[in-house]
Specification:
The strands form 7 sheets. A 4-stranded antiparallel beta sheet has the order 7-8-14-9, with no helix packed on it. The chain has a 4-stranded antiparallel beta sheet with strand order 11-10-12-13. 39% of the residues are buried. With 278 residues, the protein is an alpha+beta fold. A hairpin with a 4-residue loop joins strand 5 and strand 6. Among the domains are: 39 residues, no CATH class; 135 residues, no CATH class. The N terminus is likely disordered. It binds 2-acetamido-2-deoxy-beta-D-glucopyranose (7 copies). The site of one 2-acetamido-2-deoxy-beta-D-glucopyranose (NAG) has 3 residues, from loops.
Length: 278
């Protein structure tokens, strides 16, 4: 009994203060995975304590999860939305004229997530590798582009929105369907353009009508857990299906998705799957 209380005492005082052990239990999180950030709870396998498979940082003052890597200028990359069905998160990528390609790659890549192939990146500056006769995968209206350049305050860089000044790189046509392969942006394709900066990004979303909508200033990241469905250590919940996915590093990872009509994160260590309220 005595040891039990000592254990609890240590647990309470050794955990980071902004995380709460009791809420991790209350929300059904995995062992010591706290998924609370201020008033926000994130879906497993995300969380804010070392026991979570994918650890995010928390800006508790605005109850907002942020990517763990802070940009060179202190730029924080906020998580805007999670989608447990598609195993994706959308993060804000504020327009910037001083975010190098390597920095963008570092910020947006983690051990268990990477930029999805539905994300198009807008690059600027130099772009000596650009091949004007071969569109790299997406285009953007001139008006939108000059607005982006103004927002980013690319001072002294002029208003040049010619193809040589701004390149857009996307990996996949907007309407191809998800598969094991081709889930992630090919950074090699981005680096080949030899541009200085990643100005901003867009998520190419195909509507039911078949038209593409563009959300500027956002990037979609896909995530996975290590191991395949056959040997995955993180178990999918009872009503979830497991899918293998090829990670940007080339290995296989896996994802869990709740059965159609059910909600939840799909993990037995998380909230599992449950019937929605509707
Ligand atoms: C997954 O594997 C990578 C190495 O391939 C490792 O860096 C990472 O920490 C692992 N993630 C988890 C959640 O175990
Ligand atoms: C997740 O993505 C799927 C497919 O794009 C979409 O149908 C669903 O509404 C999304 N869920 C949320 C919570 O945004
Ligand atoms: C930081 O921001 C300033 C002003 O916006 C810019 O001049 C500088 O190049 C930036 N530095 C980095 C490393 O992004
Ligand atoms: C540019 O793209 C065209 C069409 O894809 C190709 O034929 C040409 O070889 C490319 N040029 C360079 C320099 O890569
Ligand atoms: C950019 O364009 C705006 C109007 O389109 C113009 O007022 C401004 O002087 C231009 N800036 C530069 C640096 O060319
Ligand atoms: C989009 O999908 C249609 C039918 O599914 C296909 O014929 C067309 O080639 C696709 N477009 C692209 C750019 O892949
Ligand atoms: C969920 O799982 C239970 C038990 O395995 C099963 O009886 C039920 O049919 C499943 N529901 C759906 C929607 O897959």
């Amino acid at each position: 009994m005595h040891h039990f209380f000592l254990f609890l005492f240590l647990l309470v005082f050794l955990l980071p203060h902004e995380t709460s052990y009791s809420t991790a239990i209350a929300s059904g999180g995995g062992d010591l995975c706290s998924r609370r950030c201020g008033g926000t709870t994130v879906p497993y396998p995300f969380g804010f304590s070392p026991g979570c498979p994918i650890v995010l940082s928390c800006d508790a003052s605005i109850s907002t999860p942020i990517l763990p890597y802070i940009g060179d200028n202190g730029t924080m990359y906020r998580v805007i939305a999670f989608n447990s069905t598609t195993s994706t998160v959308v993060v804000g990528l504020p327009p910037s004229c001083s975010r190098s390609v390597p920095e963008a790659r570092r910020v947006l890549s983690g051990d268990n997530y990477g930029v999805s192939s539905r994300t198009g990146l807008f690059l600027r500056g130099g772009c000596s590798g650009i091949n004007a006769s071969a569109a790299a995968g997406c285009s953007v209206p001139m008006g939108v582009m000059s607005r982006l350049l103004r927002t980013a305050q690319c001072v002294g860089l002029g208003n040049d929105t010619s193809p040589a000044a701004v390149a857009c790189v996307a990996s996949r046509p907007a309407n191809s369907t998800a598969a094991v392969h081709d889930q992630f942006l090919l950074w090699e394709k981005v680096e080949k353009q030899k541009c200085d900066d990643v100005l901003t990004s867009t998520v190419l979303v195909l509507t039911v009508e078949g038209t593409a909508t563009l959300e500027f200033g956002e990037a979609e990241l896909g995530w996975w857990l290590n191991g395949t469905c056959a040997d995955g250590v993180e178990r999918c919940a009872a009503n979830a299906t497991c899918t293998d996915v090829q990670t940007p590093g080339g290995e296989l990872g896996h994802r869990c998705e709740c059965a159609a009509g059910m909600e939840g994160d799909g993990f037995s260590a998380g909230d599992g799957c449950y019937l929605g309220e509707s």
